[in-house]
Write a structure and sequence with these properties.
- InterPro entries: CDP-alcohol_PTase-I, HAD-like_sf, HAD-SF_hydro_IIA, HAD-SF_hydro_IIA_CECR5, HAD_sf.
- This is Haloacid dehalogenase like hydrolase domain containing 5.
- By secondary structure, the chain is α/β, with parallel strands linked by helices.
- Among the domains are: 53-97 and 141-231, HAD superfamily/HAD-like (Rossmann fold); 257-373, no CATH class.
- It is 32% helix and 12% strand.
- It contains ten helices and twelve strands.
- The chain has helices spanning 22-33, 68-74, 83-89, 112-121, 127-132, 156-168, 207-222, 237-253, 270-290, 362-373; strands at residues 13-14, 42-43, 59-63, 79-82, 146-149, 187-190, 195-196, 204-205, 230-232, 262-267, 310-316, 357-359.
- Helix 6 crosses helix 7 (207-222).
- The protein is elongated.
Length: 378
């Protein structure tokens, strides 16, 4: 930082968190780091969904927790349905929890306005209240046109069931189709982390585990693979492209004459941080040599050509990676490959999980970057 407490070089904070608002994460980082972090320096797992404008006007079912409506609308989606709204409209779909099953049904159903008023007044309904707040008639509930998976939900069984109902009914849950439509409705998903590190001694389930459950159920029920129109968050190339674009904009605002050519990516997770940085490095090398390759699904628009030529991965030992138990990067006894914790749509490559540098913590990582670039450490 300079004497004014500002960061001396362009920096973005790329996190696979998604159940928080962008400006809230910026405030959290500002408090932790003791310097001002702007909201446009924070990239949440779902931030690249802003690029998927072709879906912004469609009626989308959103899964996650926390401020899901605010996040979806902040990404540009203007017609969003939450899991709770869908469950209230079709109470017979959510049947795992015996306490939440409807006891009776009534032919008298309220209007859309009455339903929403009732839902807002009683976000957590007792059985008695639920009897007064009847679900919407099916013909009053507009068809759902796609699914947004922003992060792990609280009630996995409810979300898994309702998402499957939407996909198998082509957006009209409560109906029954003779054959499941395929290709199914568009699905946009973010945060593929199978595991993440919290206060517990062992890693916790992440949204990648939820996606694995959904993919397995869909494949078992239909015999076909669940397909994504967009899959973002680390380690996707799209997320690193998005990060690079924000860094180049910061450099332009600082008046830097030349674009940034070398990126440094610091993280604690070999599968998301290191794998993603090395994958993006491969992409940049190929783009420099042959021109930018096609990304396929998850490439919603033509990005401006990457000015960067390399991305250096730096692994820190303060999170998922533990140098005393490096299961995620070292071969098992007998020469067996370690289990692949990455997403189904990413091929395993042990080389991509090998960091260019391994350091103790972020402080050492920053010192390393300054030495590499020949900058004075003040």
């Amino acid at each position: 930082m300079n004497s004014q407490g500002q960061l001396r070089v362009p920096v973005v904070f790329v996190t696979n968190a998604g159940n928080i608002l962008q400006h809230s994460k910026a405030q959290e980082l500002s408090a932790l780091l003791g310097c001002k972090v702007d909201a446009d320096q924070v990239i949440l797992s779902h931030s690249p969904m802003k690029l998927f404008s072709k879906y912004h006007e469609k009626r989308m079912l959103v899964s996650g927790q926390g401020p899901v409506l605010e996040n979806a609308r902040g990404l540009g989606f203007r017609n969003v349905v939450t899991m709770d709204e869908l469950r209230m409209a079709f109470p017979l779909l959510d049947m795992v929890d015996l306490e939440r099953r409807p006891k009776t049904t009534s032919p008298s159903l309220p209007s859309d306005k009455q339903f929403r008023t009732c839902w807002l007044a009683f976000p957590v309904l007792s059985r008695r209240a639920a009897g007064r707040c009847e679900p919407l008639p099916r013909n009053d509930f507009p068809r759902i046109e796609g699914v947004l998976l922003l992060g792990e939900p609280v009630r996995w069984e409810t979300s898994l069931q309702l998402i499957m109902d939407v996909l198998l009914s082509n957006g009209s849950p409560g109906t029954s189709l003779a054959t499941a439509p395929y290709p199914h409705l568009p699905v946009l998903a973010s945060n593929m982390d199978l595991l993440w590190m919290a206060e517990a001694k062992m890693p916790r389930f992440g949204h990648g585990t939820f996606l694995l459950c959904l993919e397995t159920i869909y494949q078992k029920v239909t015999g076909k693979d669940l397909r994504y129109e967009g899959l973002m968050g680390k380690p996707s190339i799209l997320t690193y492209q998005y990060a690079e674009e924000l860094l180049q904009r910061q450099a332009e605002r600082r008046g830097w004459a030349a674009p940034i050519q070398k990126l440094y990516a610091v993280g604690d997770n070999p599968m998301s941080d290191v794998y993603g940085a090395n994958l993006f490095h491969q992409y940049l090398q190929k783009a420099t040599r042959d021109g930018a390759p096609e990304l396929g699904a998850g490439d919603p628009r033509r990005q401006r050509p990457s000015a960067s030529q390399s991305c250096v991965s730096i692994l820190v030992c303060t999170g998922v990676y533990n140098p005393r138990d490096p299961q995620s990067t070292e071969p098992l006894l007998g020469g067996e490959e370690p289990p692949f914790h990455g997403h189904r749509d990413f091929c395993f490559s042990s080389g991509l999980m090998e960091a260019s540098h391994v350091v103790k913590d972020v402080h050492e990582a920053v010192q390393l970057v300054f030495r590499k670039e020949g900058w004075a450490w003040e």
